TrEMBL record:
<feature type="domain" description="Chemotaxis phosphatase CheX-like">
    <location>
        <begin position="47"/>
        <end position="122"/>
    </location>
</feature>
<dbReference type="Pfam" id="PF13690">
    <property type="entry name" value="CheX"/>
</dbReference>
<keyword id="KW-0145">Chemotaxis</keyword>
<protein>
    <recommendedName>
        <fullName>Chemotaxis phosphatase CheX-like domain-containing protein</fullName>
    </recommendedName>
</protein>
<dbReference type="GO" id="GO:0006935">
    <property type="term" value="P:chemotaxis"/>
</dbReference>
<dbReference type="InterPro" id="IPR028051">
    <property type="entry name" value="CheX-like_dom"/>
</dbReference>
<dbReference type="InterPro" id="IPR028976">
    <property type="entry name" value="CheC-like_sf"/>
</dbReference>
Length: 153
């Protein structure tokens, strides 16, 4: 796997969370808080062109509520479940755009689908997949990229 791919994925994710919610993304560290599947919200975004693939973002609902609270400037207890769902979809959309802008050649356009919620553990793709685990404020979350054209064989 290329260093550029790793760097572009991390840069897209960290830029998104730092710019939207002033939160620092770190690589997974020992002792990071994990959550049961029912406490994780997963969004999937299809990448149609020029490379077919999928991007999955799985985050604890608690972390998404913190992010939404920062973005909407509202107390966490006033953030609705719909706002949390909208947040994970907005995050994956922004991460995908930043990633593809950095990863593809400068003049290359791309086409994306619409973000959709899926059940945690249902990340399944006909393509080769790579998962990265990161943390924000000690809360572990994951980003998965699937697509044969992204990885060196």
């Amino acid at each position: 796997m290329s260093e550029k791919l790793e760097r572009d994925i991390f840069s897209a994710l960290s830029t998104t969370l730092e710019n939207m919610a002033f939160m620092e993304v770190e690589l997974e560290a020992e002792g990071a808080q994990t959550y049961p599947a029912e406490e994780i919200l997963v969004s999937r975004l299809l990448i149609h062109d020029p490379i077919q693939g999928e991007l999955y973002l799985g985050m604890p609902k608690l972390l998404l509520r913190k992010i939404a609270s920062s973005v909407y400037i509202m107390p966490e207890e006033e953030i609705s479940d719909q706002m949390v769902l909208d947040m994970v979809c907005e995050l994956i959309n922004t991460v995908a755009g930043l990633f593809l802008n950095a990863y593809l050649p400068g003049d290359q356009t791309y086409s994306l689908g619409l973000p959709e919620e899926i059940t945690d553990g249902q990340e399944d793709s006909p393509f080769e997949m790579k998962r990265w685990n990161y943390q924000v404020d000690n809360d572990l979350f994951s980003l998965v990229l699937a697509g044969d054209g992204f990885f060196d064989s």
